[in-house]
Amino acid sequence: MQLFIDFRDQNDKHIVVKNIDYNQVTNGKFVTLSGDGQVPANANSAIVYAIIRSAKDGGSGTMYVDDIHLSYSVGQERLYNGEFNTYSNDEEIANSWRKELWNAVQGQFQVQSFNEWIVQRVEGKGIQKSGMVAISQDIKVNPNRTYELSGTLNILMLKKAKVQLYVDFFDKDNRHLEANVIEHVKPTEGQYITLQRQGIIPKQANRAIVYVIVRATEDGGEGSIRVDKMSLEYQ
Questions:
Q1: Statement: residue 43 has pLDDT above 70
Q2: How far apart are CA 207 and CA 18, in angstroms?
Q3: CA nearest neighbour of 72 among 31, 32, 43, 114
Q4: CATH class assigned to 98-234
């Protein structure tokens, strides 16, 4: 399959294309494909495709597309919709973000308007030890860049659980390289706090997954947080 974008000028003439290819079956799981680039100077419009492309005569395929988007990046920021301001009609999860549950009985997600801010609510119950309820975003990164991971959040409740800001780095063959983790173990008494840490992107890194996690420290963990802003920014 291909994610494919065709740039055109004001006369609807083709300028250039950019495509991302994937040629494996995902065995019932969703995968995130991402790339970045620069819009041509004379581009006026673009057509974005999700394509099943035949490699030989008689090709066939089936896919489910959960989300597809093209977003402008601002400055050195790598995350899209880090302030959760754009979201679909169901208001469950902000655009560009994904729900994550692992060894948890229940996870609830909702985009909320709170004190004139748009925030992402994440709540988990019945989480087994080391299990999680989280949101995540898969992004493309450049190796050897200094970056700052930060998040502003209100930790409403924690029971046998902690909050983690977590970034996993992978190479072009999807091999895990390293992680950077920031933890907070107490509710914030109704206040928003900012957690942040700097690091250097590994020299072989091609992509990263950024998480905001409610992680159980014992069986039966639960927690509830409001996330106001997330950022992974080159320094």
A1: yes
A2: 18
A3: 43
A4: mainly beta
